[in-house]
Predict the 3D structure of the following.
Amino acid sequence: MARVKIDYGIDLGTTNSSICRMEKGEPVVVKTDTLKDTLPSCVSINKKGSIKVGDSAYNTMKSDKRRASKSGKAMDSNTYIEFKRTMGTDTKYHCSNVGRDFTSEELSAEVLKTLKSFVTDEVFRSVVITVPAKFTVGQKTATIEAAKKAGFDHCELLQEPIAASFAYGLSSEQKNGIWMVFDFGGGTFDAALLKVEDGIMQVFDTAGDNYLGGKDLDAAIVENIIIPYLKENYSIDGILGDKEKNTVLRDAMKTYAEDVKNQLSFKNSEDILSNLGDLGEDEDGEEIELDLTVTQQQVFDAMRPVFQKAVDVCKELMKRNNLKGSDLNKLILVGGPTHSPLIRQMLREQITPNVDTSIDPMTAVATGAALYASTRDADVNDSDIEVGTIKLDIGYEATSVEQTEWVSVKLDKTGSESSCPAKVLVELVRGDNAWSSGKTEIDEMGNVIEANLVEGKPNAFSVVCYNEKGDQLSCFPSEITIIQGSKVSSAPLPYNIGIAIWDDHKEKAVFKAATGLEKNKPVPAVGVVNGLSTSKQLRPGLASDLLTVPIYQCEDDPEAGRTAALYEYVADVIVTGEEVESLIPENSPVDITLKVDSSEQMTMDIYFPSTDFTVSKSLDTSKKQSVSEAEKLIPQMLRDAQRDINRLAESGVNTEALQNELNGVMDEDKNSQEKKAVLQHLKEVLRKIEDEDAGSEWNRLEREIREEFERLEKADGELGNDKSHQLTNHLRSQTDQVIRSKNVLMGRELLDQIRTIFFQLTMIYQCMGLIRDCSNNFGRYRWKDASRAQQLVNQGMAIIGNNPTVEQLQPIAAQLVGLMPDDEAGNKGGFLH
Ligand code: ADP
Ligand code: MG
């Protein structure tokens, strides 16, 4: 039977994945090849090039890690996990066994294909795949790409916390209130707050840590329990002191830690035993063996600080939403580690007593995805419908919070066989057989049937067709499902979306939020940025005349006007002269409209009011983020951050917290391969530095005003005349006044004035300096017309040597500046401002 709804949901997890489908109105998790509910998101490729996914791949990885500790050398791995982390980047996973690289999307596609292969009784081409609430546009586009590679024609995305609450909401008596989804996975942590009103769920804020999860618990167990045990029983100081050997040993130990951690969620104590010969030798040549008993208490003590980080994120999330623990009606647990009684207890004590443990934390997301999928239309081809079947056009709301729902049924004669009888009757029969609609006659105009719903669950109805004589006829669709009691409203934007515009004062492109695209706005949504102007002209027909509008997403204060490059880049929209009909001069007004659809794909309208002309563009978000570029940027950015902190410290700011944070990032840079994470954390520090800078701006400005005024006074004394004395005196009283007012804007204006007068007073020296510089460094400039420039320099140098005057030198200097390439004469790029 072809399905009218998508009906299949996949949780494509970083560590584990799962597939669930609707069967007679109930979500049923499809068992894996090892008869489990979840499949490790792990891919391994052997020498023959055959690809294994799931438990066998995960076991290969585990034994590889243990074996590597024997030699103390990292092995050439052909096993991959956590590639979800690099979705949307150009990261390559090298496979020496087949001699080629795999992308994150290709590996994810292998996981999807394997999940699909567990369904053997049905062909399906449409699917709902869940993504973290915080996934960027590029990561979402990459997920859709992976689904295409896995052979799905139609893929819809759903946010993981919404999926989990949908799974939960249906079985819950409670249809109103505020819920929190606490999703602690293998390597990521996400918290989401949802408002539930009459069963309608809406995420209104999210927080999380992309680098916190079960594997940090494993590392803590290694650090606090296994390493001390090894140190006590073996000589391993040398191994621990060697970077590679240390990593290899710890990686092997984490595999034991994971096993014991998972067991101790349900037991009081557990043994860690290694097989003889599994691990290598210590420095005295003694065979290393693990044989220790670990108690729940010991493991809990080791894990507590890791879980505490997640609890703190929740506290912060509640605080910024002015919520107390008692305001939370439910806290829903998702993710493997939430099996642990420790985190459950910590949440009860520190967040809310209303911790709910009624749903399976490993399958909640896939279950919710399937439920949601049952409300979304699948693509149905006529070839999917058997010959001789009567085709019906059925209209209904797939989710409802009412007791009954109207279902409209029309006969689709064009899609049906010509043998369709003159009179057709339809009956809806509810899955529990406790209710049926009775027969209603339908035709091409259609009719409506009131369907009676059971509360708080999906209601499957068989659609049964009869002819006049009462014979049953086969029809399509033959089943519909209406979910009663819950409804998902549209997904919220996970970030503020905006553009980069040029800030003349900062001389940098800064983030400007689009009004209407604030974080948590439900999509689809439309944003606008008005009152901008072009910084360069666009001449019609000229491809080299560019207007660039870069789009960024900002997770913190969108109004802070911080440097755009310190946020996550989405895509560029570029308008060239070829796309405009008439000249758009420099400084022309521009209004931007940015439309975001429900899967966060975007289009932009760039409107030029002076010529009443609009350019419309769709954004290409499929461009992969370059990880190697990120890596290259880090050292310079670290140096910049240190320089800025030093500067702040010199000006008397307390920079201790900033310095500690920067040191943390520096350590991370040394120890971690995840350069994307390093860059993200580094940008966070740089944003804080920028804020601190803005806060201490007045102090800097005051110092600058004083210094520049002193310089002016001196120049006035040496080179001035009556007029300049008068101006300087005027500026002196203004300086006193502005310094008293501490007004930054007035301060900046005054500084400009002081500089202008200084410049005019010293014009002759400025001109001489410029001409001399051009003469000394002639070859360094990419002159527009080198021979003319040479001529001017010669002329200028001759005048300088012979009682020069401003009148003589100024035109020469001005012409030389005109001959310099544009980007060396101060550049605003093609940005708006
Ligand atoms: P993801 O969403 O990242 O795919 P999962 O929700 O599947 O992750 O969680 C995987 C993590 O859960 C792993 O670190 C695993 O060790 C841990 N885990 C699985 N079962 C248990 C358990 N019983 N107790 C504690 N942790 C567990
Ligand atoms: Mg998960």
